[in-house]
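Supplementary Note 3. Input sequence used for the single-chain structure prediction.
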Amino acid sequence: MVPESRKIAKTYADSAGLSAIKQLLCSQVHEERLVALLMLVTKYKTQRTQIAKFYLRNLDRVNNWDLVDLSAPSILGPYLAGADRLLLYKLAGSKNVWKRRVAIVTTLNFIRNDDLDDTFRIAKILIHDDHDLIHKAVGWMLREAGKRDVVAEEEFLRSHCRDMPRTMLRYAIERFPERKRKFFMRSDYER
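The predicted structure, written as discrete structure tokens, is reproduced below.
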């Protein structure tokens, strides 16, 4: 269970070396990879560069939606906050669904700091993605961006709602008043 995984990670994060974390991260057991990533999130607070580089070297092991969602915004988000974000665009173009999800979900950290440009740009790249887990992640990030700047979200949606998969659109407009949701859903019907 996740609460137990969090307790284990919190208890051992400071004492666990990267070799032990790598062993957990390479496990076939999902929960062991979860604990490894929770440890990395904890360690990131004091070892930013080292943990971010380790995370990127082992990104192939971040291979489930929950693993991406709990780690990417907490490790890559702050690491790239004041840096070149070209990496996210490369990940958005990956054939690997988890790397594409990392690209968009990492922007949650930027959104929380009122930096929305990369969210909208990466959302545009992923708008025609064929995987439902990308549809959900993009819609979620658009919704989160809208909490900071609803005008910018609506402008993006007006330009792209006809091209968006319905799941992506539904996630993006989830917090809108019913009238606005219907407007965007009708726009979707007019494809």
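Residues 1-61 form one domain. The chain has two domains: 1-61, 84-191.
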